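Dear colleagues,

As part of the handover before I leave the project, I'm documenting each prediction I ran so the next person doesn't have to rerun anything. This entry is a single chain, and its sequence is reproduced below.
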Amino acid sequence: MEALSTRLRLRVSPGATRGGVVGRHGDPWKVRVAAPAEDWRANDAVVRLLAETLALPRDAMTLVSGHGARDEIVRLTGLGLSQIERRLTAATGKERAS
């Protein structure tokens, strides 16, 4: 049986005062990380933030594209899109109206 895999589009803001999931930025999710965009530290911080927020191990995430850019795509293994959406929405503190 093949593991569930989902691609997640992100808009990353490195060097923020504090990190977290902000909400939507168009289609991608906007995330802030305190780490600077130097020596891949912001990418590592994004993976740590997602792992904590989505309750997934870090090795369940792979940065697919955007290694040196603000727009990134991360492949997540083990969660479906609806679960990811619910957990990210909950992390923003803004519940979506049904």
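The chain has a mean pLDDT of 91. The domain at 5-92 is CATH 3.30.1200.10 (Conserved Hypothetical Protein Mth637; Chain: A;).

All the best with the project,
I.
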